[in-house]
TrEMBL record:
Belongs to the class-I aminoacyl-tRNA synthetase family. It catalyses: tRNA(Arg) + L-arginine + ATP = L-arginyl-tRNA(Arg) + AMP + diphosphate. Residues 8-87 form the Arginyl tRNA synthetase N-terminal domain. Its EC number is 6.1.1.19. HAMAP family: Arg_tRNA_synth. The gene is argS_1. It comes from the Bacteria. GO terms for molecular function: arginine-tRNA ligase activity; ATP binding. GO terms for cellular component: cytoplasm. This is Arginine--tRNA ligase.
């Protein structure tokens, strides 16, 4: 049975009491944790203002009504009308026992029945992945995990850049200019790409040949299509390797790249014209918006079809959104893409709405994120700009983690060390990204992300390890005796443990993984305080049992939370 969190239980009780005291108003109790009691409810203040009544008197009436609740040890009113509420020790222990008995740790299946398409990762063929793709991959994957865990149906879509005029140039170069003995792989491809581009910029004859090659590719010329396929396959192998190393959910089957939508583009343009959503302007098929204008005040259109008949990024995204709603039955489509593409998505979504391709009940959202900046706060270029940008970052994180673990515990053998270094290093890379507010830019800082203190995954992983180690030494899990009194540090730990479901739901609603990071960090801090103040293994029998149970619940909650962020939690480090 699903037991709701203590804060939502309180919110429900307060709302009942409030409607008894002031039935004319719908009311948000605003329950939050407090330093003066377990929880504080502030909602009466705003309600008093709205009703033109003295908030303190309202608060006193609500608090008096709550006084009879058997789960509450105290209810009082402070200041202008804050209600302070404290649970009995028994209520807290009963709640902890309920969480322990539940595999889902209280997390409801609140997204059941909803189909969410998440467009994330989206690297480009024949180019290395860059830090923007890293952010998209990490954030998108965490959201896919959270929404899936909340019971939603999640359809992952990797919108790779695998189509476009650059392939004409690349294939032409490959046939004519490339010497054949470089090792296959992404570094060869991206070197080829750079060489092809240089040639393209210097040699008009090559430009003309490349253009003819694009036409051949679009016309399905077998030799050209085979070359294109090989390039896509080579890049995809590299992406798959990266995904495997990162431990993300994306699979080859999740790829629906730009080429996938190519056959739909002509229909998109025709339909938009027929619907009157698009118009022809200077030979191009365009959609205009009142509020999108250039520096000169002229409207800037979304170009669906260029005057030369070619289709670009916008047409592909229009086809994609229609496909996602119509064929994938999305109730919600999320685009995890950096903030600089905000205008593009605004225009695409608005066009699709006008065309009726995204009906009212369907949400489309640009889940934007800020830049990941290099050391020193400058855009990523210098040191990581070369060949193996992505893999450099991963290698550096894993090597750093190896050092941290090795210093703490030099005894482990090489194979185990390598595995743990991977878990800690990848975790640190992901966590540093997820823990900052999504829309903000942040500076990549390998030393800080691997710090043993502060809001890092390493700190969380060590808290988890400490809890597991106590349980191992005890040899038993501990069953809860709800009749025992609690120490202050135990109360705080239980209150934090109980907040897990609310934190996960909050990420589902806001699409902001840093909220779960913040929650897990507070939990690990409370566990550390508990661990310092409340001996577990040496405590007398019934207390020891209860404390072991709290260790187990903490370990399970940390592991479940980290897993939702795509981060592993080893039992030992
Ligand atoms: N491949 C694009 C890039 O690297 C991102 C694609 C984002 N997704 C989309 N549906 N447009 O910038």
């Amino acid at each position: 049975m699903l037991v709701s969190s203590l804060s939502s239980l309180l919110a429900g009780r307060i709302a009942e009491r409030f409607s008894a005291a002031a039935p004319e108003l719908t009311f948000d109790p605003q329950v939050r944790r407090s330093a003066h009691a377990d929880f504080q409810a502030d909602g009466v203040l705003a309600a008093g203002r709205a009703l033109g009544r003295n908030p303190r008197e309202l608060a006193v009436a609500v608090a008096a009504g709550l006084a009879g609740e058997p789960v509450l040890a105290a209810s009082s009113v402070a200041g202008p009308g804050f209600i302070n509420l404290t649970f009995t020790d028994r209520a807290l222990l009963t709640q902890a026992a309920a969480r322990l008995a539940d595999d889902r740790l209280g997390v409801p299946l609140s997204d059941t029945g909803r189909v969410t398409v998440i467009d994330y990762s989206q690297p480009n063929i024949a180019k290395e992945m860059h830090v923007g793709h890293l952010r998209s991959t990490i954030i998108g994957d965490a959201l896919a995990r959270v929404l899936g865990h909340l019971g939603g149906t999640v359809v992952r879509q990797n919108h790779i850049g695998d189509w476009g005029t650059q392939f004409g140039m690349l294939i032409e170069y490959l046939f004519g200019d490339a010497v054949g003995d470089e090792p296959a792989g992404i570094s060869r491809l991206s070197a080829l790409y750079r060489a092809a581009r240089a040639r393209f910029e210097a040699d008009p004859a090559f430009v003309e040949r490349s253009r003819r090659r694009v036409v051949a590719l679009q016309a399905g010329d077998p030799e050209t299509v085979t070359a294109w396929r090989d390039i896509v396959a080579e890049s995809t192998r590299y992406f798959t390797d990266v995904y495997d190393r990162l431990g993300v959910l994306l699979e080859p089957g999740d790829v629906a790249g730009e080429s996938f939508y190519n056959p739909m583009l002509a229909g998109v343009a025709e339909d938009l014209l027929a619907l009157g959503v698009a118009t022809v302007s200077d030979g191009a098929v365009c959609v205009f918006f009142d509020d999108v204008r250039g520096p000169d005040g002229d409207p800037v259109p979304l170009i669906v079809r260029k005057s030369d008949g070619g289709y670009g990024y916008a047409a592909t995204d229009l086809a994609a959104v229609r496909y996602r709603v119509t064929d994938l039955h999305a109730d919600r489509v999320l685009y995890v893409v950096d903030a600089r593409q905000a205008l593009h998505f605004r225009m695409v979504f608005e066009t699709a709405r006008r065309a009726g391709w995204v009906p009212d009940g369907v949400a489309v959202e640009h889940v934007r994120f800020g830049l990941m900046l290099g050391p020193g706060g400058r855009p990523f270029k210098t040191r990581y700009g070369g060949n193996a940008l992505f893999t450099d970052l991963i290698d550096e994180a894993v090597a750093g983690a190896r050092k941290v673990i090795d210093t703490k515990n030099p005894e482990v053998d090489a194979g185990v060390l390598a595995e743990r270094a991977r878990q800690v290093g990848i975790g640190a890379l992901k966590y540093a990204d997820l823990a900052t507010s999504r829309t903000r830019d942040y500076v990549y800082d390998p030393a800080r992300m691997l710090s043993l203190t502060g809001n890092t995954s390493v700190y969380l992983q060590y808290a988890h390890v400490r809890a597991r180690s106590i349980l191992r030494k005890a040899g038993a899990d501990g069953a809860i005796d709800t009749g025992l009194p609690l120490e202050a540090a135990e109360r705080l730990l239980i209150l934090d443990l109980d907040g897990f479901a609310d934190a996960v739901e909050e990420v589902g609603q806001t699409l902001e993984p840093h909220r779960l990071c913040g929650y897990l960090f507070r939990l690990a801090q409370s566990f550390t305080a508990f661990f310092e103040r409340c001996p577990v293994l040496t405590a007398p029998a019934p207390v020891r049992e209860n404390r072991l149970a709290l260790c187990l619940l903490t370990a399970r909650t940390l592991r479940a939370g980290l897993e939702l962020l795509g981060i592993e939690s080893p039992d030992r480090l």
